[in-house]
Amino acid sequence: TMTMSARCRPIHRSLGLLLFIKQASSSLQLLFSSSRHISMKMMSSTSNSRQGKIWTHRPFQVTPASTATTTNPSISHCPLPTKTPTPPLENRIHVVYQSAGPVALEQLCQSKQEFYKTQFSSCVTTEDRDRIRKRKLASSSSSSREVDVTIYLPKSDPNNTKLNGICLHVHGGGWIWGDSQYQVAHRCLEMTESMNVAVVSVEYSLASTICNDNGQIFDPLDEVVTALDWIENTGADELNTKPVYVASGESSGAQLLLLSMLKRRDRTDGMPSLTSTWKCLNLVYGFYDLSGTPSMREDGNDSSPICGNELICMADLYCEKIVQERNHDEQCKKKIDRQHPSISPMYANLSNLPPALISVGTADPLLDDSLFLANRYSICGNVVETVLYEGGEHGIGHFGLQEEDEMGRRAREYTLQFMKRYLEEHIC
Q1: Is 178 left (phi over 0), alpha (psi -120 to 50) or beta?
Q2: N or C, which terminus of the chain has less Cβ within 10 Å?
Q3: End-to-end CA distance of the chain
Q4: Is residue 11 pLDDT above 60, yes or no?
Q5: CB under 8 Å to 166, separation ≥6 — which residues?
Q6: Cα–Cα dist 237/239, whole Å
Q7: In what order do the strands lie in the sheet with 198-203?
Q8: Cis omega (within 30 of 0) on the bond before 305?
Q9: What is the rounded distance in angstroms from the CA atom of residue 51 to the CA atom of residue 70?
Q10: d(CA 349, CA 331)
Q11: What is the reported pLDDT for 47?
Q12: Using CA atoms, how far apart are residues 80 and 402, in angstroms rounded to an integer?
């Protein structure tokens, strides 16, 4: 196993991108050889007069035990996705927070939650709601705490055949909004039907909540780890599934998912190895460096539906909330190391992790997060597949105007195909 320092110097980020480009196709080299600002403006064009590109960079062999290093870059085409109009500056998250404070931010997040409830009502039928269950799990770290999860099941099988496995799901929302039901029910139901698995989505604590009701502790990572542990220990028996597990996370959920897998990998309590238990990870437009990659910091207020400055604000809120839980001293808030492996998985030792699919759009401020992580994931000895969607914004295939564009649908379908590949390889 290749060992790496858990704390990478900034130059590693540039080297990471260069190594990734060296391995990619000539078309991918051309894409990233010019200025990011120029290429991003071109690829975010509102015109659908030409076909957009989808770059897929994957090993020839996808068997988890494979040691092959040869890659198979390919390009496919479909119409460029719709560009989201730029919202008024005063409606941007960072401006709301800076001008009106945490109360206004919490109100904004509550209005977002009302939108999700409306979406749930329109997208999820009464019949489908019967396949959604809520459950409380005992926290892995404290007997006095409980973690809520939402469980999604496929349509009933009259033969009561065991499901193919369990998919752990961690929703996005920049650590400040979202939930395991109203925000993602239609997508989790899609996953459970496509893969014939039970989907367990975690209800983790949010940084936008001013007062934690009933003394709730802000520890979203522990809450994801709790769900992971429950799946491994009793989930398969309780949900009548085969003991085959995959995991999926979007945006901030991808960060929490990857951190939870690292925590699980480093356990020394006699549990089976991580890679023997978890078959693959689906990491979608994730936030892996909370100190800010170049693409995020250079974006400013440019991108939609989420811009770089909004992502910086979300990272600020997440880090401040973590410090508040550890120590209420205001001076300590300034000392948090955003490149610490417990905050930013980009700087962790990424060896001995399951095969991963890393997906991102080229118009996403978090583009560099995925590119740099893909390279680090690979050079640490793991199997990794990377897919880039030309003109794809943050949320492509999952929310916003690009959720149901052809490229958005293809992005979502590809993640399902990826997880199904690894499930089928291990189903007895």
Answers
A1: left
A2: C
A3: 29
A4: no
A5: 197, 198, 199, 200, 231, 235, 236, 239, 241, 244, 245, 246
A6: 6
A7: 71-79, 51-59, 384-389, 356-361, 278-284, 245-250, 166-170, 198-203, 146-152, 132-138
A8: yes
A9: 28
A10: 29
A11: 44
A12: 10
Cα separation, 222 vs 220, in Å, equals 5
**Alpha helices per DSSP H over 327-388:** 367-379
Q: How far is CA 70 from CA 24, 57, 420, in A?
A: 11, 11, 23
- The whole-number average pLDDT for the span 368-384 is 95
Give the H/E segment covering residue 249. strand 245-250
Pick from 421, 428, 426: nearest CA to 356: 421
CB 16 within 8 A of CB 371: yes
Which single residue is written with the structure tokens 């409830």? 117
Q: How far is CA 216 from the centre of its chain?
A: 24
Q: Is 291 helix (H, G, I), strand (E, B) or coil?
A: coil
From CA 343, how far away is CA 256, in angstroms rounded?
A: 9
Tokens of 369: 């997060």
The token pair at 419 is 């997880």
| pTM, two decimal places | 0.86
Both tokens of 409, joined, read 């649908």
For the chain, how many residues are written? 428
Number of Cβ within a 10 Å radius of residue 4: 17
- For the residues 303-331, what does the mean pLDDT come to? 85
DSSP 232: I
Query: DSSP code of 46?
Result: S
Q: What is the mean pLDDT of residues 178-201?
A: 96
- The rounded distance, in Å, linking the Cα atoms of 82 and 401 is 6
Amino acid at 426: H
Alpha carbon 173 to chain centroid distance? Answer: 10
Tokens coding 324: 């508040």
Task: Give the CA radius of gyration of the chain.
Answer: 20
Three-class SS of residue 194?
A: helix
Residue 193, exposed/middle/buried by CB under 10 A (0-12, 13-18, 19+)? middle
pLDDT score recorded for residue 194: 95
The Cα–Cα gap between 239 and 402 comes to: 33
Please name the residues in contact with 121: beta carbons below 8 A apart, sequence gap of 6 or more: none
